[in-house]
Write a structure and sequence with these properties.
The structure is a homodimer. Chain A is mostly helical. Helices cover 68% and strands 0% of the residues of chain A. The first copy, chain A, has helices at residues 34-56, 63-70, 74-80, 84-108, 113-127, 131-145, 147-152, 157-170, 179-198, 203-221. The model of chain A is unreliable at 1-31 (pLDDT under 50). Chain A binds chain B through residues 57-59, 138-140, 142-144, 146-148, 175, 177-178, 180-193, 195-197, 199-200, 206, 209-210, 212-214, 216-217, 220-221, and chain B through 57-59, 138-140, 142-144, 146-148, 175, 177-178, 180-193, 195-197, 199-200, 206, 209-210, 212-214, 216-217, 220-221. Chain B binds a DNA duplex through helix 1 and helix 3. Chains A, B: Residues 7-31 have a biased composition (Low complexity). Chains A, B: Residues 39-99 form the HTH tetR-type domain. Chains A, B: Residues 1-35 are annotated as: Disordered. Chains A, B: This is TetR/AcrR family transcriptional regulator.
DNA sequence: GAACATACATACCGAAGGTATGTGACTGTC
DNA sequence: GACAGTCACATACCTTCGGTATGTATGTTC
């Protein structure tokens, strides 16, 4: 327990630019364990990257700007991430995780397996109306990380959809069929719907119309029983 | 008809790098009218850009490489296009035009308005299986030119879908509803399906399954009459 | 406490998008 | 049919940005 105070709150000798100290943590920094420091830096970088990627888009957002906002230098960035694509990939994975949590919560609230898929879809649609979410998950992700990586970077809503549909089929809530095609149609349809709704003259009304149409579609596919 | 020969086939004084002479045209160049020269240069640039954008993606493809392939310098490129985005936008617009022609042809072959939409969708799906088409229209376009520009850059398949659905509604082939929501679901569903099919273990089988599922969906929405 | 590993900062490089400017070919005009 | 003006480029250059190599203070291990 010797002398723990190290004076300046900056992480190292030179001048730590800014912003990092504004995080929730208490004042001192040098006494923490490496893992905590590392995690905090990654957190700062991801937060800064998310903000800039969302605001300016993947190509327009520069790593220098990300580092400045995170209060770190490029040395730190490249210590934790292999490059710009990987940084974006990490941001994307987080975003999908957040979306998936929301969708899963809505899904689990329903007992009927087909209705549960509907509610999950509804939750995904509503969550995807946020322009920042759209920019990251719908616009830039395909071009930046590719289609395969989008599905392999941890949890993703497409797999959620697939599993929901598969369960609805197993339970007999919809007619037997391979689950993949309907997954593509539903997931792609919801994604495109989100983009259209967000840009509609009256997004509120557009959302209601979309949900009504989606309801018709779900009813049409449900087995009468 | 004075002396028309100008010696070298190169367009101007200095050394025209390459490739441009390989186009279909005959040998001399200087005698043509400006408009023809200009059109030919634009054509070369678009062809080179399409090839590189399709092969390497929007960000990875460099304008220097495009110019080299087109046998032109950046001066020519920036004389005809405002920048990289606009060049890509022009390539994208052409691609959409090509797709739209194919889709329209399939659409017009059917009399029943709802079946015509199905055949148009089928044509769009099959045409979108080409990796080069996918890379340009599905992966890079949203991030590079944005959603609004994708719909304002000339003909596009989404509007075709919208009009087909609107006609099917007017003719009573499907139940009355606002056409926009179903358009988003169908167009987005087909786009996502194309990406999934192209990456499936057995694309042939995946395509058949997708079309079968699409058929079920179309039948479910059709009015019995 | 000495050797080692971690977590950065600093400085630099090359590539690529974009721009400013020059020049020869073309075109309308008198 | 010269001549002025415009068009269609080429050349050279600037700036930004992604990426890398290296130095160094901090933390960890034995």
């Amino acid at each position: 327990m010797a002398a723990a105070r190290t004076g300046s709150g900056s992480r190292q000798g030179a001048a730590g630019p800014a912003a990092a100290a504004a995080r929730g943590g208490v004042a001192p920094v040098a006494g923490r364990r490496q893992r905590e420091r590392s995690d905090a830096t990654v957190e700062d970088l991801l937060a800064a990257a998310r903000a800039l990627f969302a605001a300016e888009g993947y190509t327009a957002a520069s790593l220098d700007a990300v580092c400045e906002r995170a209060g770190v230098t490029k040395g730190a960035l490249y210590h934790h991430f292999a490059g710009k694509r990987q940084l974006f990939g990490a941001v994307y994975a987080r975003e999908q995780q957040r979306l998936a949590d929301t969708v899963t919560a809505a899904y689990l609230r329903e007992d009927d397996p087909w209705e549960a898929v509907f509610q999950g879809g509804r939750a995904y649609l509503e969550a995807s109306l946020d322009p920042e979410v759209q920019r990251i998950t719908l616009f830039d992700a395909p071009g930046a990380v590719g289609w395969e990586a989008m599905r392999e970077l941890g949890v993703n809503c497409r797999d959620l959809t697939l599993r929901g549909i598969a369960r609805a089929i197993r339970r007999g809530a919809i007619a037997p069929r391979p689950a993949e095609p309907l997954t593509s149609i539903l997931y792609g349809g919801l994604s495109e719907s989100a983009m259209a709704i967000a840009r509609a003259d009256d997004p509120r009304e557009a959302l209601q119309e979309a949900l009504a149409d989606l309801r018709v579609l779900f009813d049409a596919l449900a087995t009468g029983a």
